[in-house]
Design goal:
By secondary structure, this protein is α+β, with helices and mostly antiparallel strands. It has 15 helices and 19 strands. A hairpin with a 2-residue loop joins β14 and β15. The longest helix has 38 residues.
Length: 599
């Protein structure tokens, strides 16, 4: 009974864990060009500190398509929230996927209604999937239907009309690019800068078959180095991350993402538990079988050979393993729904291949039962009949003694590894939760992708009227999203031939106080800092310079010791220095940042 219980729990754990692992590793593998779709990532290397972000300068992908015949298609593809006002005045918030029409050459869209590639001018073109249509527009002809945005923070005269131009088949659930609404976005009218700076954008490309990605990457980075102006010394290169790897390694905060390290740890724990249960089965089964040694050896006296006894013992082992497997499958079926609720995502792919999973599991159980049962069977079948009938078991050989000791030691060591591993994970979680991040995100809510106009202060004022809201800030960045929303290369004071990339965080005067970022020198931003100042010297590029806050590491790296004067290359006037803070994962090193005001 103990053996069956131990094996059942171990098998159930393995089934649940491997179902999750299989699901997570299935993401973005269903696209027809899955093996040829890549996201363009930027790798920055400043003073030996390397960081990678899942974006690249706007229109880099389009330029690569012009320059390299290996590039089949390119498009910006990024998620953004939109608010739609339906016919019954119901407002729905949808996480829409924004993309260019060229994305149809990268991803698979099965169009069921309409001609979405024939865009309607003067409106924001969208297409919806059949599930969205059935839910909100059942039995309607939605092609050409106008839907108004219902952003609660916009005035009525600022509402942007959407027009439905197509209906498509629901995208795969196990994809980082799944969405019920697709919004067509126009290509940004900005040429790729030769100065080595620009605005970041999520971009994807598809390469032609048989393209060597390593050679292609080398060619692109070599080309980009020659593409820049002679005065632009860049500190970064580009990496093409396979779309199939994005889920497990998103490189930024994402609502659809996994964690390869966590999956590996959990899978390892499940395997170790199975090993412990198997060793425990061997020891208990051997002891239990020895108690029945007289009956086994009666078979020997009646002419049964050793092979026959081994076969009998192995059949008994297989029956125990299969019975435990059937029980574990029943528990697995009962536990799969609660597991989905706990994980907060559906195991869609797992349900699709459920027969394959069960068949593979039963084959593995049969093989494991044969391997695990072989050792006790060999021991028992080797006992001499005369001694067994007299309840005198012959002296156990040294090899058998060492085998048993080894199994016990291995079982003990694995148990210690699991226990200490869990303790270490708990300690790491406590460290992450209690370590200073340099900013406070407790009770912080983020409203993404608002359509803001010049009267953004009225939006803030309306929100501040709510008793539950303490402070409001309008920014082009949110904590842990990315190092910044814009970057610029500036001269390295220690090496004139080297450039340092400075990441900019756009936010109003309330951003720093709201996040409790510590001011260590100078002052915070004021309302008057929203306006540009005349250029004190023609050597500064741009139409105006602006007051800004910089971090301690920025000031140290750039050699900024005096506040209130413009800094060449940044087009800003540092008026305050704030303490460094983590804007990315703790796995990333704390880099150099600049925090300018937003217009």
């Amino acid at each position: 009974m103990i053996n069956i219980l131990g094996l059942t729990l171990a098998f159930t754990l393995c089934l649940l864990v491997f179902s999750v692992v299989i699901e997570e590793n299935s993401y973005d593998k269903s696209w027809s060009k899955a093996g040829r779709i890549y996201r363009i990532n930027t790798i920055e290397n400043t003073k030996g500190i390397e960081g990678e972000i899942p974006q690249a300068f706007a229109n880099l992908g389009l330029e690569l398509k012009r320059q390299f015949p290996e590039v089949e298609a390119s498009s910006a593809i990024f998620p953004r929230n939109i608010f739609l006002k339906l016919d019954n005045d119901e407002t729905v918030q949808i996480n829409s996927l924004f993309l260019h029409k060229e994305a149809f050459d990268i991803l698979d869209f099965e169009i069921l209604e309409g001609k979405p590639l024939e865009t309607v001018a003067g409106k924001r073109n969208i297409m919806i999937d059949q599930e969205f249509k059935e839910k909100y527009f059942k039995d309607e002809n939605v092609i050409g239907k106008i839907i108004k945005t219902s952003d609660p923070l916009l005035d009525k005269n600022e509402m942007i009309d959407f027009i439905i131009t197509g209906v498509f088949k629901k995208l795969p659930y196990n994809s980082t690019l799944r969405s019920s609404v697709i919004t067509f976005s126009s290509v940004m009218k900005r040429e790729l800068s030769k100065n080595g700076d620009g605005y970041y954008q999520d971009q994807y490309i598809s390469l032609k078959p048989n393209t060597d990605i390593n050679e292609f990457t080398k060619k692109v980075n070599s080309w980009y180095k020659d593409f820049l102006n002679d005065s632009a010394v860049t500190n970064y290169t580009f990496r093409f991350q396979p779309l199939q790897e994005v889920y497990m390694n998103p490189l930024a905060q994402s609502s659809i993402s996994g964690n390869k390290r966590s999956s590996t740890i959990i899978m390892g724990i499940a395997i170790l538990v199975l090993i412990i249960s198997s060793i425990n089965f061997i020891n208990l089964y051997a002891v239990r079988t020895i108690k029945k040694i007289k009956s086994f050896n009666l078979h020997k006296i009646m002419g049964a050979n050793r092979f026959f006894l081994i076969k009998i013992l192995l059949i008994e082992t297989q029956i125990i393993f299969l019975f435990s497997a059937i029980l574990s499958i029943i528990i697995y079926l009962l536990a799969i729904s609660p597991l989905e609720l706990f994980l907060n995502f559906k195991l869609v792919y797992t349900h699709e291949i459920f027969p394959t999973i069960i068949f593979s599991f039963l084959i593995a159980v049969i093989l494991l039962g044969g391997i695990i049962g072989l050792y006790p069977a060999l021991i028992i079948s080797n006992i001499k009949p005369a001694q067994a009938l007299k309840n005198k078991i012959s002296k156990v050989s040294n090899s058998e003694v060492w085998t048993k000791r080894t199994l016990i030691i291995v079982q003990f060591c694995i148990s210690l590894i699991v226990i200490f591993g869990l303790i270490t994970m708990k300690s790491q979680m406590n460290l992450i939760q209690n370590s200073p991040k340099g900013l406070n995100t407790e009770n912080l809510l983020n409203i993404k992708s608002l359509y803001l106009s010049e009267n953004s202060n009225s939006i803030k004022n309306e929100l501040l009227k709510k008793p539950a809201i303490e402070n409001v800030s309008i920014a082009g960045w949110r904590p842990y999203m990315a190092p910044g929303f814009f970057s610029r290369n500036v001269d390295n004071k220690d090496n004139p031939d080297q450039k340092i990339m400075v990441n900019f965080i756009g936010g109003d005067k309330d951003l720093v106080p709201m996040l409790d970022i510590k001011l260590i020198e100078g002052r915070l931003l004021r309302e008057s800092d929203y306006y540009g100042y005349p250029k004190p010297n023609p050597q500064y590029e741009g139409d105006e310079v602006n007051n800004a806050l910089i971090t301690r590491s920025t000031a140290k790296t750039l050699g900024i010791k005096t506040l209130g004067i413009p800094y060449k290359g940044l087009d800003t006037i540092p008026v305050g220095i704030v303490e460094d803070f983590h804007s990315e994962s703790f796995h990333e090193k704390n880099e150099t940042y600049c925090n300018p005001r937003s217009k």
